[in-house]
Design a protein that fits this description.
By secondary structure, this protein is an alpha+beta fold. 58% of the residues lie in helices and 8% in strands. Strands 1, 2, 3, 4 and 5 form a five-stranded antiparallel sheet that branches.
Length: 508
């Protein structure tokens, strides 16, 4: 019995010792698991902070992936329509699209389980902001991606050559006015009557020499009359084939109140006007280069230069500018031709030489040369519109007009096509570059807006509702997963909240 009791006591002591060891291990395990769960929750919170930024980026990229299809397809431009085709942009539309994009991702069952609770568009920039800076930036980017840089360098050198010739030729309009005044002064001179009898007596003796060395008629009178004629009727072989299209310029960006964004751009990327001209030349149509049917205007490049309501008015403006451009270039050429200057001097002497006033003779000589250059310029532009080419700087062999047949050459209204030189489109590029940059940009966006309305069938689409970039603030939330006592992140009502701001720009 004694031994049996001792055995039971020993067994009870053993059981007590084993029980005490089990409780210790349990407490230790709880501490270890608490530490592990704390570390997991800490890692989860840190991960959610990074995930919030990533989710906002992906949601913005997904929403802005719904860019306006017509702008991209026809013009290579990326803009998001914040008006959804209505007549007014609404920032709430963009916010709701971001919320919708986050909702479509569905409930997350993974480690983070984070959801978008609220979003606010802090600022945005439109295509028309800062004189169309975003449109120009994207247009230049598209041109640089698709076109060779050689075209830009060529245009730059041509503009420099022309600017030099314009400076060399001086003010031709002033020379023309001085010639008209000198001619009028000579005609009104009191010496006319005194010289009439002397001229009559000289007819017999000078008649033979006049027949040997005939002089052309004074072209000044002819050009004065020519400038009163409709210029398109002079330079076009068939004016009846002109486009009859027109637009309502009262609704253009220049003449209406445009919407404005509120984003501040820290550093505006440099926009080279030469690349903008290359872009317009690639995507816009002209008199000699159609880009397809269904456009609001057929002469789009001409509109960018002229800014008028109809194709005919814009073409007329361009033709007049081309005549002036060619007139300066032709004057530089003719002033290097001693034979042509001698002919002009002989005609001037015959017209006003009886006055004996050298400045009058000189002024009329300059007027004759300007008139001759004007006729030559008419022939040049006629050649360009017919699909021919004209050198920017001519030599003597490339001169077309004959001083003895100026009126006949104009009245024939047929063009002599040349194969060397610059075509009509290349001269348009020069005129585009010489147009004010703000005017050029605004008119280009007018063309695009009018066409996009036709392509989409929506007459309410506006370029000043097209978004190029935004700055957004978003609020994400998540519930604790492992522990609810970790003091990390901003917690309200037992949940974590993460505030993120993100900027998105097309092709920045």
């Amino acid at each position: 019995m004694i031994s049996l009791k001792k055995s039971q006591i020993k067994q009870e002591k053993s059981n007590k010792e084993e029980g005490s060891i089990t409780i210790f291990l349990a407490l230790t395990l709880i501490l270890i698991l608490s530490f592990l769960f704390s570390m997991l929750e800490l890692a989860r919170v840190k991960g959610m902070q990074q995930l919030a930024k990533r989710k906002l980026t992906l949601e913005l990229e997904s929403v802005f992936g719904g860019y306006n299809q017509e702008l991209w397809e026809y013009y290579g431009l990326l803009f998001w329509d914040m008006s959804n085709g209505s007549d007014e942009p609404d920032v709430r539309l963009l916010e709701s699209r971001i919320m919708e994009e986050a909702y479509q991702e569905g409930e997350e069952n993974h480690f983070y389980q984070m959801a978008l609770k609220d979003v606010k568009v802090e600022s945005y920039v439109l295509a028309t902001d800062r004189n169309g800076a975003e449109f120009k930036r994207q247009a230049c980017r598209t041109a640089k991606e698709q076109l060779a840089e050689k075209g830009v360098e060529t245009l730059k050198s041509r503009v420099e050559i022309w600017q030099g010739m314009e400076e060399e030729s001086g003010d031709l309009e002033q020379k023309w006015e001085e010639a008209l005044e000198a001619k009028e002064e000579a005609e009104n001179s009191e010496e006319v009557e005194n010289c009439e009898e002397e001229l009559e007596t000289q007819e017999g003796t000078e008649g033979d020499s006049a027949q040997k060395n005939p002089l052309p008629e004074n072209p000044i009178d002819y050009v004065v009359q020519l400038k009163t004629s409709p210029v398109l009727a002079i330079v076009l072989e068939d004016p009846s084939q002109l486009s009859g299209k027109g637009i309502d310029i009262a609704d253009s960006l220049d003449n209406r109140e445009v919407f404005c964004g509120n984003m501040t751009i820290d550093s505006e990327s440099s926009v080279d006007k030469l690349w903008l001209v290359q872009y317009l030349n690639e995507y816009f149509s002209s008199k000699t280069n159609s880009k397809g049917q269904g456009h609001a205007l057929d002469y789009e490049l001409e509109y960018c230069i002229g800014g008028k309501a109809t194709d005919v008015e814009n073409l007329e403006t361009v033709v007049k500018k081309l005549i002036l451009l060619r007139e300066s270039a032709n004057f530089v050429t003719i002033m290097k031709d001693s034979q042509k200057k001698a002919i002009a001097l002989e005609v001037a002497t015959a017209v006003v030489g009886f006055t004996g006033i050298a400045p009058l003779i000189k002024a009329v000589q300059m007027g004759i040369l300007v008139a001759w250059c004007y006729v030559e310029s008419i022939l040049d532009v006629r050649c360009l519109l017919a699909g021919g080419k004209v050198p920017l700087v001519k030599n003597g062999s490339q001169w077309k007009s004959d001083p003895f047949h100026l009126s006949e050459e104009i009245s024939q209204n047929n063009s002599q096509k040349e194969e060397s030189g610059m075509g009509y489109g290349e001269y348009l590029q020069m005129l585009l570059y010489m147009t004010g940059e703000n005017q050029l940009t605004s008119r280009a966006m007018n063309v695009i807006e009018k066409n996009i309305r036709l392509f989409s069938g929506n007459s309410d689409i506006r370029m000043d509702a097209m978004v190029s970039g935004v700055k957004v603030t978003a609020l994400y939330s998540a519930n604790p997963l492992f522990l609810s006592v970790i003091p990390i992140g901003q917690k309200m009502d037992g949940s974590y909240y993460f505030m993120e701001s993100q900027k998105f720009m097309y092709e920045e």
